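B., you asked whether I could sanity-check this one before it goes into the benchmark set. Here's the sequence:
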Amino acid sequence: MPAPRTTAPRKVLGRLSLPERTYVADALRTETVGGVLLLFAAVAALVWANVPALRHSYASVSHYHLGPGDLGLNLSVGHWAADGLLAVFFFVAGIELKRELVAGDLRDPRAAVLPVVAALCGMAVPALVYTLTNATGGSLAGWAVPTATDIAFALAVLAVIGTALPSALRAFLLTLAVVDDLFAILIIAVFFTDRIDFAALGGAVVGLVVFWLLLRAGVRGWYVYVPLALVIWALMYNSGVHATIAGVAMGLMLRCTTREGEQYSPAGRIEHLVRPLSAGLAVPLFALFSAGVPVSGGAIGDVFTKPETLGVVLGLVVGKTVGIIGGTWLTVRFTRASLSEDLAWADVFAVASLAGIGFTVSLLIGELAFDGDAVLTDEVKAAVLTGSLIAAVCATVLLKVRNARYRSLCEQEERDEDLDGIPDIYEQDDPAYHLRMAKILEHKAAEHRRLAASLAGTAAGRHARAEVPGGAGEEDDRPA
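And here's what the prediction gave me:
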């Protein structure tokens, strides 16, 4: 009777495959640079909006209108940043989501369970926390504000504190943010669309179909797609559906797989070109014209006394952390998986607290949720900034505690003793790697034997000279 087959329990947050690790490293490098720019933009906005000599100019520039009014696009600078520039950000988010679904972790249902469940719980719990906080007198309109995670801001915090977070945790944070962005887009489309102009919406859909057909036909050239994308965006804006949805739709249409003779997929090439524009220009400019809120002792105190603002802070700091670590635990519990032996639940808790940094999308949803109430909008923005800062400080402390362990894991991931460009940890099952290492070690052993023999001969010569009368060891032969 054959012995029953046993299968090893599936590991969650285990080591990434080499291609996935390379992609994550490249993507996060750009996002980190963009996140640092985002931090500078947020600080600049706060200074610009609070220095007495400058605050009036900040308001004047933010509310300055420009654009063709006949096309319904005579918008303020702040409006252009939120609806126009963020469309570029969501275009990149659409590409990331498509890549994850086609070639990344989300293509495998078993691997996709963790980030999807964690992201859903990480959005549902903050919304619940906000709702409970406002159930007895506050406005429930802002329930969606604390549900978003800002990956660029989170990575900027990592860059500033210098934490060598292992690639598995970085990938988890990135995939979590991609899924988070998807549901944030759905929230914006479903809950923040007050009116629909079906003629404009129909035109936008026709434009998207043309965009897709051109992609299928293999048509190339920015001069074709950029004007078409602008038309689609303008029609989507005038339809009443938030214009950033157009960016997501176009990003999802790009092909993320390579064909014969292609080194990179169309989505890979375009993402490589557009991601720096998104991270380095679009998002920082949005932050510059959205984060400029009045800051004073009284305003900060109000953040913790008004139910709307307190709900946002608690949602980001408490709700995000509890939701993500709870979703991760539920996934491990009910799929009978186990956490990677390299990590501990303290690491998941630290990343969950880092995901409480909600900035870009939270600010956008705050503007949409309280449109028409400028005072409450500014107060909610202040709450987003406060909650994000608290989450960043908490994450910094938690990550610093584990930083020595993270550095050890990163050094192990980076070690390349055979100098072939591939970390040794990914070549343990390759016989050629072990043969190369054997030659390297044999060469080192031979060199050590040579040095040992040379040193032993030198020591023997000294000993022999010391025993010969009148030799170098005698006092009489030593120079005065």
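One thing to flag: The radius of gyration is 29 Å. Otherwise nothing jumped out at me.
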